[in-house]
Write a structure and sequence with these properties.
Layout (H helix, E strand, L loop, with lengths): L6 H14 L2 H10 L4 E2 H7 L5 H13 L3 E6 L2 E6 L2 H14 L16
Antiparallel strand pairs: 1-3, 2-3
Helix pairs in contact: 3-4
Length: about 110
C-alpha cells in the first residue's frame, strides 16, 4: 500500500491516540474492557476518582466515539463502542500492564 493511501487511517489513529492520551480516560477504557459499567462502578474500581472528573472524561470518550452509553433508571452504563478501541486497549495492557519487574519502561526519561 502506498503511504499516501494511508493518510486517512493515520488521521483516525492519531485521533484515537489523542483520546487515549489522558490517564483517567485510558484507565476508564481499561476498566471497561468488554463489560458495561456505571460511573460509580468505574470510580470504585479506579480508586475513588471524584465523580465530576470521571463523568467529564466519559463525556469526552463518548464525544470522541470511543464509548457508548445507555440509561437504565437513574444509572448510565458505559461500554467500549468499537472493536478497534478494545484491540488498542488490549495491546497497551499487554505492553504496559505486566507483573512488576517484567514491564518495560518506555517513554519519558527512559532513554529510548
Amino acid at each position: 500500500m502506498n503511504v499516501k493511501d494511508m493518510i486517512p487511517a493515520a488521521e483516525n489513529a492519531a485521533d484515537l491516540m489523542r483520546s487515549l492520551s489522558h490517564p483517567q480516560r485510558l484507565l476508564a477504557l481499561c476498566a471497561l474492557g468488554t463489560e458495561e459499567k456505571t460511573v460509580a462502578d468505574l470510580r470504585c474500581e479506579l480508586g475513588g476518582i471524584d465523580q465530576v472528573p470521571m463523568s467529564q472524561q466519559l463525556m469526552r470518550l463518548r464525544a470522541d466515539g470511543l464509548v457508548e452509553s445507555r440509561r437504565e433508571g437513574t444509572s448510565v452504563y458505559y461500554r467500549i463502542a468499537r472493536p478497534e478501541v478494545l484491540h488498542v486497549i488490549e495491546a497497551l495492557q499487554a505492553a504496559y500492564c505486566q507483573p512488576v519487574g517484567e514491564a518495560k519502561k518506555v517513554g519519558r526519561g527512559s532513554g529510548g
